[in-house]
Amino acid sequence: MQLTLPDILHASDLQIARGLLVGAPWADGKGSAGSQAAQVKNNNQLPYDCEASQAISAMVFRGLERSALFLTAALPRKIFPPRINRYAGAANHYGNHVDSAIRTLADGQRVRSDISCTVFLSEPGEYVGGELTIGEPGGETGGERRVKLPAGHAVLYPGNSVHQVQPVTRGERLACFFWIESLVRSEEQRRLLFDMDMALMQLRQAYGESAATTALTGSYHNLLRMWAET
After folding, report:
1. CB-side neighbour CA atoms (13 Å) of 49
2. Which fold is adopted by the domain 187-227?
3. Mean of the per-residue pLDDT values for the chain?
4. For a 10 Å CB count at each end of the chain, is N or C smaller?
């Protein structure tokens, strides 16, 4: 499931973030890539322990916490701390790749990358190219979607999908990226739960609470109880 999350970062957050990135200590992005991805990765990335990266990561976490859409779509169990990248000049693209299935935190904990997420920090008009191109899970080439969202918006997409960042031919593309381990491992099950939750919301808005919505809410939670790993 691919899903746009609006306004994960507010305008005030973006202003602070962009200020922090002026003169930031950018490094070669290959350092965080797996062996396959490193062959096609050509961008810059901030060290996670630098001031700008830590501050922007904290903003993104706060934005995710207030996003009901993120919580119901991702059903997060663990989140790999956000990283910040830049595409500009000679370091301007990231070819087709699949994200590593397991990411390791600094304390040794492991996070399964069920869901990938990109939060855009640059406005679409600030750069040419740079679209996040997402293919089908499992390496299928049909049905690609090109994503280039307003600053502060995010996109969720399956961690097992083939994706790339198209070359940036002018300007600078700044973004934040991370991975989510979901309480529900199966993409199909997460999609069913999300669709059910959205339909329940629409029923409540149209007709209010009823015996039927209560029963369906119980079914939702029973399915979640059946499928969730805690």
Report:
1. 2
2. DNA Excision Repair, Uvrb; Chain A (4.10.860)
3. 94
4. C
